[in-house]
Design brief:
- The complex is a heterodimer.
- By secondary structure, chain A is an alpha/beta fold.
- Chain A folds into two domains: about 15-160 and about 320-390, 3-Layer(aba) Sandwich (D-Maltodextrin-Binding Protein, domain 2), CATH 3.40.190.10; about 160-320 and about 395-435, Periplasmic binding protein-like II (D-Maltodextrin-Binding Protein, domain 2, 3-Layer(aba) Sandwich).
- Chain A is about 45% helix and about 15% strand.
- Chain A has helices at about 1-30, 55-70, 80-95, 110-115, 125-130, 135-140, 165-170, 180-190, 205-220, 235-250, 265-275, 285-290, 335-345, 350-360, 375-390, 400-415, 425-435, and strands at about 40-45, 75-80, 100-105, 155-160, 160-165, 195-200, 275-285, 300, 320, 320-330, 360, 390.
- Chain A has a six-stranded mixed beta sheet, sandwiched between helices. In chain A, strands 6-7-5-8 form a four-stranded mixed beta sheet. A two-stranded parallel sheet of chain A has the order 9-12.
- In chain A, strand 1 (about 40-45), helix 2 (about 55-70) and strand 2 (about 75-80) form a beta-alpha-beta unit.
- Chain A starts with a helix and ends with a helix.
- By secondary structure, chain B is mostly helical.
- Chain B folds into two domains: about 1-55, no CATH class; about 90-290, MetI-like fold (Orthogonal Bundle), CATH 1.10.3720.10.
- Chain B is built from 14 helices and no strands.
- In chain B, helix 4 (about 80-85) packs across helix 14.
- The radius of gyration of chain B is 25 Å and the shape is globular.
- The chains are: A alpha/beta, B mainly alpha.
- The interface between A and B is large, with 48 and 42 residues.
């Protein structure tokens, strides 16, 4: 009897121990992949730049194969949709387990810099990837807070432009693209007919909304943070900028109220590509438009118009300095291989190949030698980036600012779409509420 | 009746293991060893995360500390003060979200239970094609949640959705295409989708409960002159009491904490009118990078649900005692 019980106890103990061992061995396994063998395998999180996640994978894979041929290092790519990217990065930051190299929206640089989870690109690190001077100054302006070593390096540069449909403009008897905001509204009204709209807007998209709010507020002479980094959301200029954007749907009526539902970050562009709308304000989209089957001869692009006359104190800003940066996770166990990959992705041939496919702009000056970057559209975007683009506020609260105001604007668009009037005081109240939720 | 049996079993229980008692107290390691895995996993899965959650709610855990969160400064009750300050945007939004969630939960719970009950009673007695109908009723519950709700999202879109196509283009019920995913209607869309998801569960549980009701009870009721309504009122409902007690509690907790349905239907930022508490807390912590306040809200929610559950269970117990 006693023996049996002892046996049972022993078996139970073994079972418990085995269960525990199973737990620990499985956790060891997940670490094992990143051990420092001679040829490590890297995990790369790419943002969604093409028409779909699958499309991105197809574009990137040949380049990654090329990298493996050159260095013997395997890179596993995972394309992360924009709606998840920031959360995934946050989770990786908290747990310390994540990719080795990753793409970040360049406007998040200062916020992510504050987490201290990414390798700093100080001069010594920069030297390893070929030096700071290879990059365009404009692109480097959105890689972190001023006076600190960049937290990432620029990979693709982008800017907003006003895309218009040349054929539809001509059919409506409009001879030249709009040069002022008022002309854009007038043209839009001329083009808005039964079932067809002047301009499409991604009205439920947090990031599209905040970029527009920032640009239009700059045109009014406003700013969301003062020089000391203190939040100043509810100012008459910021309200005026946001109102002007919502009014495209509310009073100018050149935008379909249904656009208030658009939140996937593709729908407004799809409407434009399909000819359902004649204009859209979008980041360099040549690659996507081609993929969506729009006739290249119909596509025209000009800088986003500014109001005429310019509001007092207003700046001629037509776009944010948009783009994608490449960051290295501090927790990654093979920094040298990571930096080799960063160097490869920012090398001239890769910059030419990838930016050509995506329709974005190279971030290194040497890459512009390629004739593909001498077209009219590219030179338009290049001049926007160098002359009339402003970087989003480089403060640690930037990503909070984006989500809070962007979300508030989703609600304002929803109100405008469902027939409620969005007044200046409504916008002011929404901005006040957003500022109160900002964590100091 | 089931309760009476349970209770008599409980009364009988202490007497039986009497003789064995002495033997067990000598080599008392085995029961603890057998219990150990369960205790360990209970600790790992429930108690430890809960304790960590309470601990985090006392920290100022923002983006500056998430990388090394053990060094986040202690905040005391300040996260709770922010969450409960109803003059301030954060607290006001939390209160609003609480009301929305309560209204949503009550509606979904009542309608799901009613549908489940009706469906179960309807299929209680055998008829041709009963199996087929029961299976059809269970389909929403068997479908993968994401696929089902994203389909609703497509159907509810204003310009391209099936709902507006039927209402506006086919039936001409309304002329102006209504919005279903933004504005006031978004709340009702959410309720409809949630009921569609939940009611098969109520149906399943009530159907199972009906199997245990003996048919001679119905015969006796019929002999006493009870019609269909009378049989439901005097036989079915009282006999289902224990089943309903658990069903309603479970449905309440599931609906109240539901995250997947609103998140799949609306995405990251739910419309103000359909801002459920689970999404709201998610936004307050993940979207604004403020995990301390988010945790404080979660702890408050946990406390609220505990209080509701306790009141509910004790109310039922008192009523059961009245019956006994």
């Amino acid at each position: 009897m006693r023996l049996t019980r002892a046996c049972t106890a022993a078996i139970t103990a073994t079972l418990v121990a085995a269960t525990l061992a199973a737990c620990s061995s499985s956790s060891k396994k997940s670490d094992g992949g990143s051990g420092s063998t001679d040829k490590p395998t890297l995990t790369y999180w790419a943002s969604n730049q093409g028409t779909s996640l699958e499309n991105d994978k197809q574009i990137l894979q040949p380049q990654l194969d090329e990298f493996k041929k050159q260095t013997g290092i395997t890179v596993n790519v995972e394309v992360v949709p924009w709606s998840d990217l920031l959360n995934r990065i946050l989770a990786a930051t908290t747990s310390g387990k994540g990719p080795d190299v990753l793409n970040i929206g360049n406007t998040w640089s200062a916020s992510l810099q504050a987490t201290d989870a990414f390798t700093q690109f100080d001069d010594a690190t920069m030297a390893k990837i070929g030096g700071k001077d290879r990059f365009l100054t404009g692109s480097l302006s959105a890689t972190g807070a001023e006076g600190k070593a960049p937290t990432a390096v620029p990979l693709y540069s982008l800017a907003y432009g006003l895309y218009y449909n040349k054929k539809q403009f001509a059919a409506a008897g409009i001879t030249k693209p709009p040069a002022t905001w008022e002309e854009m509204v007038a043209d839009g009204q001329k083009l808005t007919t039964n079932g067809h709209w002047g301009l499409s807007i991604e009205g439920g998209s947090v990031s599209e909304n905040i970029h527009a709010a920032f640009t239009l507020s700059q045109q009014e002479g406003g700013s969301f943070f003062d020089a000391s980094g203190k939040a100043t959301f509810n100012t008459p200029q910021n309200v005026a900028g946001i109102k002007r954007y919502i009014d495209l749907m509310q009073t100018d009526k050149i935008t379909n109220p249904s656009d208030a539902e658009y939140s996937k970050g593709t729908e407004a562009l799809e409407d434009y590509a399909a000819g359902k709308t004649s204009m859209v304000i979008w980041q360099a989209a040549a690659g996507s438009l081609k993929k969506l089957g729009m006739n290249a001869a119909d596509i025209g692009v000009v800088p986003v118009p500014t109001p005429e006359p310019m509001p007092s104190g207003g700046k001629k800003v037509t776009s944010i300095v948009a783009g994608i940066n490449l960051a290295v996770f501090k927790g990654s166990k093979h920094q040298d291989a990571d930096l080799q990959f960063v160097k490869f992705m920012t090398s001239t041939p890769e910059q030419q190949a990838l930016n050509k496919t995506y329709g974005s702009l190279p971030t290194v000056s040497d890459a512009y030698s390629d004739p593909a970057f001498k077209t009219e559209a590219v030179s338009t975007f290049k001049s926007i980036l160098s002359d009339t683009a402003a970087p989003m506020p480089a403060v640690a609260q930037e990503s909070q600012f984006e989500t809070l105001i962007g979300t508030a604007m989703n609600g304002l668009f929803a109100n405008a779409a469902t027939g409620k009037t969005v007044s200046e005081s409504d916008i002011g109240k929404a901005l006040d509420a957003a500022q109160q939720q900002l964590t100091p | 009746m089931v309760d009476t049996i349970e209770r008599s079993a409980r009364v009988a229980a202490p007497g039986t293991p009497g003789p064995r008692k002495r033997r067990r107290s000598r080599g008392g390691l085995l029961p603890y060893l057998l219990l150990a895995p369960a205790v360990l996993f209970e600790l790992l899965i429930h108690i430890v995360p809960m304790a960590v959650g309470v601990f985090i709610s006392l920290l100022r855990l923002t983006q500056f500390y998430i990388h090394d969160w053990r060094h986040a400064p202690f905040a005391g009750a300040s996260n709770y003060r922010v969450a409960l300050n109803f003059d301030h945007a954060t607290g006001k939004a939390l209160l609003h979200s609480m009301w929305v969630t309560l209204a949503y939960t009550m509606l979904v719970l009542a309608i799901s239970w009613l549908f489940g009950m009706a469906g179960a009673v309807f299929t209680q007695h055998a008829f041709r094609g009963r199996g087929l109908i029961r299976t059809a009723f269970l389909i929403p519950y068997a479908l993968p949640m994401f696929a089902a709700v994203i389909t609703w999202n497509f159907m509810l879109q204003r310009d391209t959705g099936a709902v507006n196509h039927i209402l506006v283009d086919q039936l001409h019920v309304v002329h102006d295409r209504p919005f279903w995913l933004i504005g006031q209607n978004s709340f009702f869309s959410l309720v409809v989708v949630a009921v569609w998801r939940q009611w098969p569960f109520a149906f399943l549980i009530i159907t199972a409960g009906l199997q245990s009701i003996r048919s001679d009870l119905y015969e006796a009721a019929a002999l006493d002159g009870a019609g269909v309504i009378g049989q439901i009122r005097y036989v079915t409902l009282p006999m289902l009491r224990p089943v309903n007690r658990v069903l309603i509690l479970v449905l309440f907790l599931w609906t109240f904490n539901d995250f997947t349905t609103p998140f799949t239907l609306f995405g990251k930022s739910a419309p103000h009118q359909a801002d459920l508490i689970s999404i709201h807390i998610y936004q307050s912590s993940f979207v604004t990078w403020n995990f301390g306040t988010g945790s404080a809200m979660s702890v408050l929610l946990l406390g609220f649900l505990l209080v509701v559950t306790a009141i509910y269970l004790s109310a039922f117990r008192r009523r059961d005692d009245d019956y006994a």
